[in-house]
Amino acid sequence: MIRPQIVLFGDSITQVAFDVGGWGGLLYNNYSRRADFLVRGYAGYNTTWGLIMLQHLFQLDAPSPKPVAGMTIFFGANDAALVGRISEAKHTPIDEYKENLNKMVKHMKQYSPSVQIVMITPPPVDDARRVEVLRAEGKKIDLPERTLEESGKYAKKVVELSKELYLPYIDLWSKMQQVQGWQKKFLLDGLHFTQEGCLFLYKELALAFNQTSISIDNLPTDGVSKLPGFQ
Predict the structure, then answer these.
(1) One Pfam family this chain carries (predicted)?
(2) Tens of pLDDT along the chain (231 residues)?
């Protein structure tokens, strides 16, 4: 049996999705006998670099492409880095950010027309914690390189595009802030997730997936229980 493939595509938050207690591992536990997971997360990547990588990973002229049943696209934490501060090389102008995401979706729809894509906004940022962490790393800074306000602008673009393309989405930026004490509860360094932050995203993704074609109920369980001679 050829199992469906679900791709997790994004930056460092996706790259570590299968760390202990990670959101990708939690999600995979639901699908362990129903789908194969392909993790393609790239620390430090913005959507400009991510789009180039996507076109290499899923080549439209590939001789025997393996169809992708589902996919998460989770970028923005780097795109929203502020100009004039230490991470400005990762910054992407906001309209270009939206267009890059649009191109990612269109590319995957060409590669695998039936793919179910779930968009995820960048998470909220704890400005003060970012300064603390960078100073601890030896950076001489007074201002954070990312802010809650700026990441919120990029999150709105994800929601906007998702509605335009009729795609399911998770407004992580807004949803996390609805929980009291979200800064310490969900964020390890003001940006990346604690295990509770991973659990929060996992629950949101499980709900989103189960309302689409990649719902667990829509994917058969593989196995040998009905094969001849199986005891």
Answers:
(1) Lipase_GDSL_2
(2) 678 999 999 999 999 999 999 999 999 999 988 999 999 999 999 999 999 999 999 999 987 778 899 999 999 999 999 999 999 999 999 999 999 999 999 999 999 999 999 999 999 999 999 999 999 999 888 899 999 999 999 999 999 999 999 999 999 999 999 999 999 999 999 999 999 999 999 999 999 999 999 999 898 887 544 545 544
How far is the C-alpha of 71 from the C-alpha of 213, rounded, in Å?
Answer: 11
CB burial class (10 A; 0-12, 13-18, 19+) of residue 124? buried
Task: Kindly state the DSSP code that residue 187 receives in the 8-state scheme.
Answer: B
Is 87 annotated as catalytic? no
Q: Are 94 and 153 in contact (CB under 8 A)?
A: yes
Which amino acid is residue 7, in one-letter code?
A: V
68 vs 212: CA distance, rounded Å: 14
The answer to whether 60 touches 31, Cβ cutoff 8 Å, is no
- Given 12, 64, 87, 213, the catalytic residue: 12
